[in-house]
Amino acid sequence: MSDQVNVTFHTPEDLSQGTIVSLSAEQSHHLMHVLRIKEGKHVLLFNGAGARARAKVIESHPKRCRLEVVELMPLNFPPLRVSLCFGLPKGNALDFIIRRVTEIGVRSFHPLITDHSLRATHWNEKRWARVVIEVCKQAEQPLIPQLFNPSNLDHWLQAREPSALFFCDEQARTAKLAKIPTEGPCDLLIGPEGGWSADERQRIIRAGAVGLGLGKNRLRTETAAVVAVTLLKMSIGEL
């Protein structure tokens, strides 16, 4: 359509035809002053829960632009199954993991405090929430992964919902997936830069984790996260 601008904005609201949506101040500024989109133009909306729509700009305001949903866009997008559970790494590695794994597509992120990880003070929930939404917009990923606050590894192992559990281990780089679940969620454990301690490795195995080898080369934690998520998603037919 000639009046449509191919740019996507996020709203947490439910989307249905005729719904009036107010953009955040940041997004309103971007629409008006960066993209210079005028009233009457159409843009795309997504709510992060799988809904996308075409919406008309009905009111331009530097702090609160208002849009009317004019058409829902059908999606054939099954729920994501893989959750990434990872020992907190240093800042640059953490940024890489959040951005690239969001782009690939996961259902949630679980940062973990382990023997060799950073502490919970290095987790900035608001910043990562903004990053995840921005990446989803750019990648046209309709499902925003849930961000959990850092948790101790043992507490997480005890509290997690029953699901398939996989983990990557430096001592088992060639481990092959023995059995792949045909349905249901999957938790994938990635260690921090220092890897898993001997005690952690035993506790993870006792929790029923299945090893996932990433090849003979020693990978940085951020590389391992991307490779492991990709391999697991391919194995369960999600790519």
How would you explain this protein's 3D organization?
It is a single chain. The strands form 2 sheets. Strands 6, 7, 8, 9, 10, 11 and 12 form a 7-stranded parallel sheet that branches. A 5-stranded mixed sheet has the order 1-3-4-5-2. It has 239 residues and is of the alpha/beta class. Strand 7, helix 3 (125-139) and strand 8 form a beta-alpha-beta unit. The chain folds into 2 domains: 4-73, Hypothetical PUA domain-like, domain 1 (Ribosomal Protein L25, Chain P), CATH 2.40.240; 82-235, SPOUT methyltransferase, trefoil knot domain (Alpha/beta knot, 3-Layer(aba) Sandwich). The longest helix is centred in the middle third of the chain and has 15 residues, at 125-139. It is built from 6 helices and 12 strands. It is elongated. The mean pLDDT is 88.
